Amino acid sequence: MNIAEIFAANLRAVRVARGISQAKLANSAGLNTKYVGRLERGRQSPALTTVAAIADALSIEPAEFIAHDPSRVIKLASST
């Protein structure tokens, strides 16, 4: 997996683990719902400010999006 695919997989994993819809995440992060979908599919790469906004909305550290162990990210997301 490349970094865009890792980011996409971890973003989706955290969002789903938190039980948050793409629309709710987009609203909380100040983004468009379709853009969040493109990020989750790895079709678009986010700016650092976008990564920070999404991390804030999901209450995780931005670095967690590029962790190579998705199970660790899901565990982290589920514990908060």
Automatic annotation (TrEMBL):
Fetch the PANTHER family from UniProt. HTH-TYPE TRANSCRIPTIONAL REGULATOR, HTH-TYPE TRANSCRIPTIONAL REGULATOR SUTR
Q: Where is it found, in Gene Ontology cellular component terms?
A: cytosol
Name the source organism: Neomesorhizobium albiziae
Question: Could you tell me the keywords of this UniProt record?
Answer: DNA-binding, Transcription, Transcription regulation
Q: Note whether Transport occurs among the keywords.
A: no
Q: What is this protein called?
A: Helix-turn-helix domain-containing protein
- Which CDD domains does the record associate with it? HTH_XRE (cd00093)
| UniProt key word Transcription regulation | yes
